[in-house]
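Can you make up a polypeptide sequence alongside its tokenized fold?
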Amino acid sequence: MNLLLFLGIALFIFSILLFLIGKLISRRILKSKKLLRIPNGEITYTDLNVPAKPIFSKRHLLSGKPDYIMKNKESLIPVEIKSGNNSKPQKNHVLQLACYCQIIEDFYSSFTPYGILIYPNSDYKIIFNPKLRFDLENIINEMRASLKKNYIERNHDNLMKCKNCSIRNYCNQKLG
């Protein structure tokens, strides 16, 4: 009888410890979300803390790893955190986010109405509307045509961007 009582008390104390650890983890997650200004919702995917597997669109043959995917009501929303101090969303960032919206729609078979760009000083809700979908489709087609021709037109003068570029091997205009 004493053994059962001891095991019951030990199990009760262990349960309390697990509960307190869970609360501590929840507080840390909330604090991190507030610090990074991540919107409310359940985080269903993250690539920031631990490298995640890319998600893939079979229809468009695209893959990507958004910083976060949030579940907001019935929608999955990509969240991309950027470090630059920009007064407005950069076109390449908007297209990257649009690409994540498309990949999420295809991978999870769900509608993605918008994505969120978070810069150090401001956040932007980018609506994944028909115009942005059309622009994304055009860019994808241009990129595929360039890859087929084995000719990539450099669109910047940034040495570090060049050195870290995933298509550096195809570029005839690489810096450095």
In short: DSSP finds four helices and seven strands in the chain.
